[in-house]
Every structure is written in structure tokens, then in C-alpha cells.
Amino acid sequence: MSTFIYHNPDCGTSRNTLAMIRQSGADPVVIEYLRTPPTRQQVMRLVSDAGLTLREALRQKDTPYEALGLGNPALSDTDLLDAIAAHPVLLNRPFVVTPRGVRLCRPSELVFDILLNPDIGPFTKEDGEVVIDAAGRRVRP
Fold this sequence. Notes:
- The chain has 141 residues and is α+β, with helices and mostly antiparallel strands.
- Helices cover 23% and strands 15% of the residues.
- The strands form two sheets. The protein has a four-stranded mixed beta sheet with strand order 2-1-3-4, with helices on both faces.
- The longest helix is centred in the first third of the chain and has 12 residues, at 12-23.
């Protein structure tokens, strides 16, 4: 089984997660989900396998979430899936699938839970935040 990342190249968290995956030695299948949106069934599988509800997987920032009234608790999963189908940006990212599981990697360090080789060596995020120091120790804020 391969490693997959549902990726948005315009998202720093997604770029950092992809870099961590690659630094682990994996060659992931990169799915730019805004260009190739997952099907409704794929969305539900990702969300379920990550241990989330569909509502927990919705992205609010920089999306039509508010304009569409998606905060309404009376909306069903079908309603939310309809919104994601019409506006894929509503699906939070990045979702990563590996043989060890599925995670919504927010923050990006959550990818370590499912990498086959989580010992990736020193890593610094794009914004300069050190995640793993030169001695190979995880740095926690």
C-alpha cells in the first residue's frame, strides 16, 4: 500500500506535511484535491478512518463556510457532503493515508503518527519553527 496525501500546494501546513513525508523516505501519491476532488464516498472514508466527524473535517477559514451557513447544527452529513462537492476547499487538509492509518495532519506533525519511518532527522517548517532538532529530538512548543 502506498502513501497518499490530499494536498493543497498553496497551504503551508500541507507543504510542510508533504516535505516530512518525503524526508521520511516515502514517495507519496500527491492528490491535489482542489483539482481532483475526492468522491463523497472517499471523503466519508477519509474522515471516518481518521476518527473524525464530517463536521470536524470542515475548513472554516478562507472558505464559503459562513456564507453557506454550514455552522447550522441541523445540517446533515448529506448537506455537508453537498457543500464539499460544490466547494472542495471546505474539506480541511492535508489528509494523509499510509499503511499505518489516516490522519488529518493539522498540525503537520501529526503525520509522524502514521509514517512508516518517523525518524526523519532534523526538520524545520517553512516559517522557521523547528520540529526536530539537529540531535533528532522532537521539539514541542
